[in-house]
Structure formats: structure tokens, C-alpha cells
Design a protein that fits this description.
The complex is a heterodimer. Chain A is mainly alpha-helical. Chain A is built from ten helices and no strands. Chain B is elongated and about 80 Å long. The chains are: A mainly alpha, B mainly alpha. Chains A and B meet through helix 1, helix 4, helix 5, helix 6 and helix 8 of A and helix 1, helix 2, helix 5, helix 6 and helix 9 of B.
Chain lengths: 255, 279
Amino acid sequence: MWALDRTIRIAFSVGFLALLVAIWHLLSVTGVVSPIYLPSPAKAWSALLFEMGGGELPWLILRTLEHMIFGWLLASVVGVGLGMSIGISHRARRLLGPTLEFFRPLPASAVFPVAIAIFGLSEGMVYVVIAFGAVWPTLLATVNGFTQLTPRLNELRALLAINAFDFVRKIALPSAMPDILAGMRLSLTVSLILSVTGEILSSSEGLGYWIMLQARAYRSDSLFAGVLLFGAIGYLTAKLLGLVEQRVLRWKRIY
Amino acid sequence: MTLDTTEQKLASGDRSGESDATSLSFMRRFNWEGILFPFGLLAIAEVAMRVTGVHSETLATPRQILATLIHSFGNGVIFGLSAETLSAAAGGLLLGSLIGLLLGIVFGAFPRVFELMELTIEVIRPIPSISLLPIALLVFGFGYVMEISLIAKSTIWPVMIMTHAAIAGLHPRLREVALLLEMGLKDRITKLVLPAIIPSLFVGFRLSAGVSLLVAITIEIAANPRGLGYAMMRAEETLRPDLLFALLFWVGVLGWGINGLLLLLQKLINHRFGGAGAR
């Protein structure tokens, strides 16, 4: 009974999406919205298949993923490392706290012009901006995870008389892990946005620059195909990280 | 709870982050070291650049940057640029939050509608709004409308998710209270529902406000010839590092100030509504 109910619900959910696609199709085919702006779903789909099959699109997707993931890894390593050293030392928190609080709400893309001035329109510039922009969620989440250790764990540290390194590795880091992963997830979203912006600005190889070219050539079917791909990349990478998160945090399920 | 999304985690994580943020910067004893630290760095940069006599087209000394900043305030240029960026951000934020609020209310009040639309939302939400820029450019051309439409697209989600979660999470006892007191619909909404959900709604709004500034600046840097983002690109292209860094600093101050103001408002709202739902 329950399974049937669930099937019906999924069917309705898919049906609603299909209805919207049908409306999109009608709007485009009847010419209510000019096909220059809005290609029919069938055209966008066939453009996607065409570009994926014969074109350079798979390569460009890989390039964008490369920007996004390496930038994100860089940000994660710096964020967790710096976050741990700030989080564990009361003095470092006092010294750096206000400066970090100033940078936290800074719109990351505002760093692009400065990075372009220093590094030029290069791929390295894109990585620098992604790393800088995506570091904040992870960094602040790590500091947060370390400062919000239950006092009991600090008592445990005194009791066991273990050194700082072991304390971080065995107690503080696992305890802060949920915070860190939540921050890294947010950082991943930021990296995707900054990768696209970076590719558009620096004309470096990737999906972001490609959709800009399609728009300039008024190839709206390819343009929509590219946007759909971005949706898929955003969705799949977030899902993937969610799975990793579940696996890393499986010890938490005991509680 | 059917909602298990990044934003919600972000929202809850962010809330715990706030208490920490306050403990980071407003410690019981005034944090002189922390406030003076960035100024110390700037002073070192100033001295280092003077001693080595760097004449660069990419870097400016802190003193030059400050002079340019004061100058841009004097001739009012920076106010005009800020007005362009902030009005677009505010317009998009208003439109996006209204849509998000409506969707959140409908989803919260009618779970069936949410089940129906969940897949569609999950398909649209992860599309980064910057990747919609070429489409928005084709449809609207350069200008406010294009910028506002993209900002609206990305500010819908935090408000929608927080509203939905707040309404779906209303305590069942509230319904019993309403029945017991024989309250009308109007009383039920104004006296029970609104006070319970407003703190959460505001958290969503504050998150969206941060997003709106980010998207506005991003679009101005990437395409739209107006506002602070475009002025920064121009400063870079015309080799004016002093202006570039002055604008970057000012954008930072704006982001920090807006966030701080909304945090303050959030505290007032939590206080006024007893923090129900938000803590």
C-alpha cells in the first residue's frame, strides 16, 4: 500500500515536470516566445546529444570540473588547515577573528578584478579566485567546529594528558567533522559559480566560456543544452558530496 | 521533515555560527589586538612598499588607496555606483524573496503541492544563476532588468526553504490551542502562525540578502556595464590599482555592514518573538 502510494506520488511529480516541459514546447513551437530566445525542448535536447557526441563538449565539461574541483580542493585544504590552527588557539582567534569576520561577507567575485590585475587573464588566476572565494565557508565552519567542542572533551584531554597533535587527530577533528563537511559542501557551490565566472572572464577553456560563445552566435539550442549541463553538474556534485558525508559521518548514527 | 538540503544545513549551521561570530568579535573584554591586527598589516605593507620603492601598475600603497577612497567620497562617484549596485540587489532580493515566500507558504500549507513540485524545483535550483547570464542577456539585454531577474532567481531558495520548514515545523499544539480558543482564521494567522515563523523567515531573508549582493557584483563584473563591479573592472583595465583596491575595500564594507545590520535586526526580532522557531 505504502509502495503504491509512493509510486503514485513520484508519477505525479514527474508528470508535473513533464507538463512544464510541454508548456515550454508549446510556447516555443507556436512562436509565442521567439525561438531565438527559447528553443523547443526537443531542439535543446538534440543539440545536447549532437554536441556531446561529435563536439568538444565532453572535454569542456571535464575542464570545468577540473577548475571547480581543484579550486575547491585547494580551498578545502587551506580552509581546514588554517581553521584548525585558528580554532585550537584562543590567542589566534582573538587576533584574527575580526579580520576574518570582515572577509566572510565579502562577495567573492569582487576579487576577480584584483586577481586579473596581478595574475593576468590566466587559468592560474581562476584557481586563485576560486580558492580565495571558496575558502571562507570551510574555514569558518572549521573554526566553528573547533570552538564549539564540548568542554567535556577538553577535560578529557587534560585527563588523558595527550599532546596537541593527538588531541586534534583523535578528538577535535572527528568532533568538528560535521561542521567541516557542511562548510565544504557550501564551498563546492561557490567553486562552481566562480569557475563559470572565471571562464567567462578569462576566456579559458570550459563550459562557461562555451555557453557565452553560443549566446554570441545566437545558438540558443546549444545555450540551453549548456545550462542544463550546469544544472546537472551542480546537482550531481552536491549529491556525491552528500554520499561522502553520510559515509564519513556514519559513526554519528549511533546516537 | 522532508527537507534535507544544503540551505537548511547552512541555515542551522549558520545560526550556530552566529553565536560564535559574536563570541569571535565581541568578547567580553574589548578585543584590541583583533581590531588593530589588520591595521598593523596595512602599516607593514605601507612601509615595505615605500622602502623597496615599488612602483607598480597592479599594487597601490594603503595610503594611496585611502586617499582615492576619500576622493571618491568627496566627488560622490562612489555613492552613485553603490546606488546602482544596491538598487539592483534590493530589487532582485525583493522579487526573489516574495516568490520564495509564496512558494514556501504554499508548500508548508499544502504538502501535496510540495510533493508535486519537488522534482521540478530540484531540477531548477542547482543551476548556477551566472550560467543563466547568456540567456538573460539575449532576452533582456544589458541593464537593470537583466541583473534583477538573475538576482531574483538565486534569492528565491533560502527564503523558500526557511519558510517551508518553519510552516511545516509548526507545533501541532498550536492547532489545538486555536481550536480550543475558537479562533478565526485571521486571529490564527496573526496571533499564532506569524509570531512562530517570522524569526525563521528572517534568517532566510538574511541569507538571501548576502546572495543578492554576490550575484549583483558577479553580473556587473562579468557583463553588465554598471555599478561597483563594472567600476572595478574599469579600474583594473585602466591601470588604477588605487581605485581598484579602494572599491574592493568599499564592497567589503558594504557586505559587512549589510550583514551586520541584518544580524542586529534578527536579534531584535528573535527578542520580540521570544526566539520561537529560530533558536
